[in-house]
């Protein structure tokens, strides 16, 4: 997917990308590749693949959730890695207030430098485990949207993400194939943590680049205080 095709495919979903934003994506790509030589950020390095498998894929969240609102949306990205999906979303929707949590200090350093390079404001970075972060009163149930992109099974992700989501907010889980089985296994976790599955959307990335699934989970009640459990426990003993 070249740059022009990327812009056209995004515009098909009613989202425009202006010249400045196109330049930001180009700079994002160059910065990602430069840093990837020093640390392992992504196995996907060809430009056309980065644009479809990282940039387009990240923006697909906005096809099914309305970020076009007057009040700035507070979004927390859990385990953002190289900045996906939150940084592409921030480029296209500059009114977003982004918080990124990642357990690897080197990735946080990269993301901080990336945000400065791209000229992004209202982006905060925290080197922390999601389990610890979700128990911090400053951040717990503080976000309109919480995103996670294929970093763990849904039963685990739900415990890491739903505690951060305010009642009335949305947890957006961005997954590959097999999400329905994961959701079935995560029924207990989602219900226990105050969530309810609103919708699951299945679609294909352009140019035969694979199936993607987006699970939209509404936060309908407060998360019990004992969740999330201590670091590592959700992964070792999921709520299933």
Task: Please describe the structure with a list of short key phrases separated by commas or semicolons.
Rossmann fold; single chain; 22% strand; 39% helix; alpha/beta; seven-stranded mixed β-sheet; 11 helices; 240 residues
Structure description:
This protein has 240 residues and is α/β, with parallel strands linked by helices. It has a single domain, classed as Rossmann fold. Helix content is 39%, strand content 22%. It has eleven helices and seven strands. The chain has helices at residues 3-11, 19-36, 47-59, 61-64, 86-92, 105-118, 130-133, 154-161, 179-185, 187-192, 233-236; strands at residues 74-78, 97-102, 123-127, 143-149, 165-175, 195-204, 211-219. It comes from Terrihalobacillus insolitus. Specifically methylates the N7 position of guanine in position 535 of 16S rRNA.
